Amino acid sequence: MTQTARELLPSLTDIEQAAKVVYGGMAPTPQLSWPLLNQALDAEVWVKHENHAPTGAFKVRGGMVYMDKLAREQPGLAGVISATRGNHGQSVGLAAARFGIPATIVVPEGNSREKNAAMRALGVSLVEHGSEFQESREHALHLSQERRLHMIPSYHRDLVAGVSTYWMELFKAQPALDVVLVPVGQGSGMCGAVAARNALGLKTRVIGVVSAHALAYKLSFEEGRKIESPVSTQIADGVACRVPDEQSLAVLRAEVDEVIAVTDDEVMDAMKMYFIATHNVAEGAGACALAAALQMRAQLRGRRIGLTLSGGNVDHDVFARVLMRDSAVAAGALQAPVQVLPLQQRRTA
């Protein structure tokens, strides 16, 4: 029997159980409202800083929950394997190391050097194969059978339960948000937002964000069926998805209000904006939500907005080029007139 979208999502009890595991390995991350972002978007903006998580990205939460259950249910496991562009692999590597389970991760050739180095530092056995994520995932499936390793998917209910904990933090701190924007790679972040919103009974709109150079989820959302689409993004590798996951797509179609596409130029503008406005580093996928908010500025004016800075793992040379490029959007954040309070108001403010 086909599961409904809500049946695919973790319940409030599932998320609360996942939180016990997550907070055994990390502290909650902050949600902050930055004046320059509020000014740039003419809205009340709350940024969820998952770039402050132990591996620099939200994925670590899902990895801890998945591996905790796997280690209890399958003691003596020979090893695990998965495919990634980086953040999922770091999550798996950190969690597997805690349980003494060998981890193999397959990445595309030419993957981020610094993400690769971070995975190796966690004890991961790294395999480079394929020109993009889907080819890496198919090779990981082949190796899992050949080497008798447990294949960790990019999307799973337990992964979503872990990821949902960061959305619970945001929604409990700011329950009056009108809308949240979330990047969609393989869908765990988006599904986590939906699961937490539903668990708390909120009416917050959820907007998914994809790369304009990786449109699989947007096209599938609009057409009502699974559609593959080529990947050509050069900056947002965390959302470089060619083939949508069936389960996360079902949730997207049933529970998400809208899907926005952002170009690489818009993403780089947002990366630079984040640094100017908050002095936080955002990787390409981590800046997608802000890129979409800037694109939708007119519609979002005066609203309460939640943005996820979902990861900060960008190679230093790439980030240097982003900071050096001209960006009228980012420069505009510094151009608003300064409001000087009269002396009496300054004394009592």
TrEMBL record:
InterPro entries: Ser/Thr_Dehydratase, TrpB-like_PALP, TrpB-like_PALP_sf. Residues 25-311 form the Tryptophan synthase beta chain-like PALP domain. Keywords: Lyase, Pyridoxal phosphate. It comes from Herbaspirillum robiniae. CDD domains: Thr-dehyd. Its cofactor is pyridoxal 5'-phosphate. This is Threonine dehydratase. Pfam families: PALP. PANTHER family: BLL6502 PROTEIN (PTHR48078:SF7), THREONINE DEHYDRATASE, MITOCHONDRIAL-RELATED (PTHR48078).
